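Hi U.,

Before I forget, here's the chain from the pilot set. I'm dumping it here mostly so it's searchable later in email.
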Amino acid sequence: MAVVTNLDQKRRKATPDPLETLVGLVEDDLHAVNDIILARMQSPVELIPQLAGYLVASGGKRLRPVLTLAAAKLCGYHGGRQNALAACVEFIHTATLLHDDVVDESDLRRGQASANAVFGNKASVLVGDFLFARAFQVMVEDGSLDVLRILSNASAVIAEGEVLQLTTTNDTETSEEAYLEVIKAKTAELFAAACRIGAVVASRPPVEEEALRSYGLNLGIAFQLVDDVLDYSAVQARLGKTIGDDFREGKITLPVVLAFRRGDDEERAFWRRTMEDMEQKDSDLDRAIEIMNRHNALRDSVERARHYGAVARDALGLFPASPVKRAMLDVIDFVVDRDY
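Structure:
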């Protein structure tokens, strides 16, 4: 298999995992969030807690709710509203994952069988709807119109992003601008909302709200850019993780956009055959990675992620130094340099 830009060289330090450090700073709140999630997933309809429990057991970093907790702590908030709202953020995220896997016809999620593969598409869609409904119940119970506005707007934008992605799938003429519009909507918007509500519960001024929104938005863009690179990563392959799902689904991500734009006629014909016509051979994934490396499409996609990471870093500049600020800055490096 072709060698891909090694994303973990700069990250191999004797320091703790930045995300684990951030989790440690909000650990008590995160326990409360997990308790709220488990309690609010309960239903007399047996399949709902069964499927939702499967999702919880399948892992995940809880990055988005952790960011809500961290943002509230950064803003000096000492109440408890952030816990329920962090659970709300996780419900929205999990609901979108359920719907994504059905739309993408995915059989795997984090290396395990996806919920739709185990329980079927109908159950996955409907339980996703249940989780969205639970999220809105929690928002209403919080009582803040600002929180309701931020999270409901984010939910609408995420849905728009999913529909927009349908228009770019299998379209090799997709521009970098169109790709960025998709990932801002379907991924970064929830990061932005998750961070912003930390300032809202702390009653911080609009400039701090905006700073945390910018931090989350740009972190989310960087996160998705790296995710899209990892789908073609030899590092992932060495870790025993599936690669090439985006390729097999004909999903147009930035590495494909750059490789197509920079390629010759023969290479563009390859992309049209494999991504538009979906005529793929076993050797095509290796060929796709080789073309991407030849044109530095993977490397440059990571560099784009570093740019957005730098913007996220700048956004926190107005907050005073603190352990949580340091951890939130370090998470930017974790997101960009991760290999999973």
